[in-house]
Amino acid sequence: MQLFIDTANLDEIKAVSKWGVVSGVTTNPSLMAKETGADFKTTIQTICSYIDGPVSAEVISLKAKEMVKEGEKISKWHENVVIKIPTTEDGLEAIYQLSQKDIATNATLIFSANQALMVAQAGATYASPFIGRIDDMGQDGMAVLAEIMDIMDVYGFETQIISASIRHTRHVTDSALVGADIATIPYKVLKQMIRHPLTDAGIEKFMQDWAKK
Ligand code: G3P
């Protein structure tokens, strides 16, 4: 399972780019709005200069025609840009049209297996089920992800599934266990994934013992 970072914060992206484990970035309008400074285009292009992999940038139009127009414009910013499209009827139309033009798409805000099935049929390059938000509704996000992975495997869809809206480290492990292609992970959770109190305690003990030598 590939690891992406879910943020528009340039400092966070720069920091993880040095670890050699993050192969893509996902953003959304909420994440983008939290960052001050550079405009949308400059931010996306800077992200692309830090991480050599897919970088999702979301359209803000809601009608298919405008989504396609906006997607075509954003796709010219960098060859690694992926156009993030909300999963609606208009979104399906936009995903289909963009796929016909060989523009990569990431169908976002997926909450059910049927939505994933439909965006895969429309030709989405990526599909992003929002695990944490499904859990927030009192339902089982990981069960929905598992259903999606089964469907993708049985029918051989090429759409890659991004486990998104990840809230904690267990979500990452479980996403890998059900075979998600990618998990997009907040910076805080990526940092938590490498930490273990026994590793810290082990290092401290090694240093103490070495000092006694
Ligand atoms: O990648 C999806 C993510 O940005 C949404 O996360 O925590 O707002 O549900 P969250």
Automatic annotation (TrEMBL):
It comes from the Bacteria. It catalyses: D-sedoheptulose 7-phosphate + D-glyceraldehyde 3-phosphate = D-erythrose 4-phosphate + beta-D-fructose 6-phosphate. SUPFAM superfamilies: Aldolase (SSF51569). InterPro entries: Aldolase_TIM (IPR013785), TAL/FSA (IPR001585), Transaldolase_3B (IPR022999), Transaldolase_3B/F6P_aldolase (IPR004731), Transaldolase_AS (IPR018225), TSA/FSA_arc/bac (IPR033919). The active site is at residue 84. Its main location: cytoplasm. Keywords: Cytoplasm, Pentose shunt, Schiff base, Transferase. Pfam families: TAL_FSA. Transmembrane segments: none annotated. GO terms for molecular function: aldehyde-lyase activity; transaldolase activity. Its EC number is 2.2.1.2. It is found in: Cytoplasm. GO terms for biological process: carbohydrate metabolic process; pentose-phosphate shunt. Gene3D superfamilies: Aldolase class I. Pathway: Carbohydrate degradation; pentose phosphate pathway; D-glyceraldehyde 3-phosphate and beta-D-fructose 6-phosphate from D-ribose 5-phosphate and D-xylulose 5-phosphate (non-oxidative stage): step 2/3. GO terms for cellular component: cytoplasm. Transaldolase is important for the balance of metabolites in the pentose-phosphate pathway. Belongs to the transaldolase family. Type 3B subfamily. This is Probable transaldolase. The lineage of its organism: Bacteria, Candidatus Wirthbacteria.
